Amino acid sequence: MGFSKKMKDKEWSPWSAGVLLGLTAIGSYVLVGKTIGSSGGIENIDSILLKAFDSSWANLMYFKYQMPPVVSFQILLFVGMILGALTSSLWSKDFKFRMMPDQQWTQTFGPSKLKRWTMIFIGGVIIEFSAGIAGGCTSGLAISGTMQLSPAGLIFIAGLFISGIITTKLLYGGDY
Amino acid sequence: MMTYVVPIVIGFFFAFALQKAGLGHYHKIVNQFRFKDNTVMKFMMTGISVGLVGIYTLKDLGFLQMDQVSSTYILGNLLGGLLFGVGMALAGT
Lengths: 176, 93
Prior knowledge:
The complex is a heterodimer. Chain A is an all-alpha fold. Helices cover 69% and strands 0% of the residues of chain A. Chain A folds into 2 domains: 9-97, no CATH class; 98-175, no CATH class. Chain A has helices at residues 3-8, 14-31, 39-52, 61-66, 73-91, 105-109, 113-134, 138-147, 151-172. Chain B has helices at residues 2-20, 26-33, 39-60, 74-91. Chain B starts with a helix and ends with a helix. The chains are: A mainly alpha, B mainly alpha. Chains A and B meet through helix 2, helix 5, helix 7, helix 8 and helix 9 of A and helix 1, helix 2, helix 3 and helix 4 of B.
């Protein structure tokens, strides 16, 4: 199987994509001395916004020292992530503007766009807030943390699966 | 210059892997919680395994110092994780 054909595949096996993820994480540790993470970058952006609008929250210890208002490593990661996902999806012709998920959503929750967008917004707020509590997100804590055998990553994965399974069960009801 | 380029390249491959695993799709995430599609688990565990072996090998050979280990505070990690799962199941991201 040639390189070009592989790149045109819409989906790789999770194993090969996972190997690429692992190699990227090693590269990040060796080249920059930092671990991959996403949620921290959002908090840096928050911090920049708070400072720009002169909010009193900008003086909180958290936004002053923990998540300072600078263009951090993780904000630069975001730039690369947009380019990476765009390249991957354009190359395999998987790129599409989606207002709604492709499958499954409409069967369970109906065709309302408002419902989907409200739920993804609330979900996003919960995700970012809890990533702040836990000290990382799926990439920063679950993947990068466990990779270094930090108990934090494993505890986080356990918590996330417990509540994820329960929430999905509640949402899907009998169709679980 | 390099301080800007290297993180962007790392982010590029990170999101490339995520997109190729299909994790940009709502059903991939939610179906993991329904145990109908184990892509997320396979992808995460492969990534963790490869990274773990690589990082610890390079550390033993003296090429890097492990100074970025996420700090553990059990209550915070657990509470954060429990709340995080609710958000993930709602948004499917």
